[in-house]
Structure formats: C-alpha cells, structure tokens
Request: fold
Amino acid sequence: MRKPIIVGNWKMNLDHLEATYCVQKLAWLLRDAHFDYSSCDVAVMPPFTSIRSVEVLVEADRLKIQYGAQTVSVTSQGAFTGDVSADMLAALGCKYVIVGHSERRKYHPEDDATLVDQVRAILAAGMQPILCVGESYDERKQGIELEYAVGQVNDITRDLSEEEAANMLVAYEPVWAIGTGMVATSKTAQDAAHAIRQHFATVFSAKVADSVRILYGGSVNSSNASQLMSQARDMDGFLVGGSSLDPEEFDKIVRLTQKAAKQR
Ligand code: PGA
Reply:
C-alpha cells in the first residue's frame, strides 16, 4: 500500500517568519484533529530562504511535517553563483525536491537534460524527486494529453535503475489547471495517473509501478480534494499551490484527502 501524501508548493511566497507561523499553525490544527501521520504524509516546499526556519521548528517541536525544496542545482559545489546543491538541501533535512515544475520550465532554461541531472543529484543525496509533468491547453485540445505527460515522464526517468525509479514521485499538473481555478475532473486525473503508472510497469516492473506515488496538482482546494481523491484510484495525493499558503485551508485539504484515501 502506498502512503498518501499532500505537498504544499509555496512557490515564491512566505519569508522565514511567515513560514514559521504557517507551519506552526498547520501543526497545531493537525494535532487538534488527532491527525494520524503514520497513514498519510504532509510536506511543505518553502523557498530556499525559509527552509532553515522550518527545519529549526520541526526539530524543536518534533513535528512530523516533512519539507523539501522547489528546485536544485545539477552540480555539487563550486563557482555557480546563486545555485544551491542537493547536499546542502539534504543537510537541512529536506526529504523531497520538486523537479520540472511548469513555472521552472517556462521561466528558466531547464531542458530535459538538466532535469535528468537534477533527478540524479536529488537521489544521490538521499532525497526523493517530485517530477512535475502535464500538458498545456493546446495538447489537450489535440487530444494528446496522455501521450504528452507519459512522454515527459519517460524523457526524465528512462535511464534510471529500478531502485532509483521506485523512489520517484510524479505530479501530474496540467498547465491549464495551475493557478487558474480550472481543476481537472477526477476522470482526467485518474486517466493520467493510470497511464503514468502503467508506463512505470512497462519500462521498469510491476513492483516499481506499485511504489511510485503519483499526485495531482492544479487548483486543488478544500472543495474539490475529497471528490478528486475518492474517485481517482491511481492517485496518491496532491501538489497544492495557492491553497497551501493558508494553514487553515491546507489543514482541511490534508484531512479531507486522508479521509477520502482511507475510504476508497
Ligand atoms: P495551484 O498550483 O494549486 O495554485 O494551482 C499548483 C502547483 O503549481 O503546484
């Protein structure tokens, strides 16, 4: 059984003081609700400058909330002004790193070769990549959305070993759904998650396909989380952007998702 996970992608929001407030509040809300972390992972992905504050809080209060980063350098150290290495993130207790978010692909020169190197750097540092894939509105109109998303997964993961592939998380995030309020239907999310899982079974093995956690992302909130989660059986949780910035809203999403996952 795969453990569901809800990941908050804060993007370029919440400085280190706001981050501390947000994680503390989220932890209190989940504690008050007797949230069972053993059956569901909860993670936040702060901007680089807030990660250390989150680490200090998590350690001091022994919180079970996990955290990670939104991108990483492909090199391990040296003269790369502005970059942050996988080892630096691992040293801060990061468990996950997002790879290939559509905003990174759009605003930065992150091509497939870079993403492959990022995945390798993250795995080598003992963390787990969350690979983002998903079609734009154009591909959807042409009816090639599944081939497109699966193709993106293949481009980045095909040369991994079985063990490395089993440590991947994939977030299916149709570009047209990100930050737009246009959430995918549960059928769309399920079809994509299923196609991606099948792909891992074909290229690697049934065991790998069974262990890869596949998330949906794009305008998830507390009004649509339950329905999406209960209907899409190949989906193991969410990557949540805007709605993860408000701890009360994120707490609701986390609890609704865990409940829906348990009931299906
Ligand atoms: P959104 O973003 O929830 O604000 O649509 C999701 C994401 O970009 O990961």
In short: The chain has twelve helices and eight strands. The radius of gyration is 17 Å.
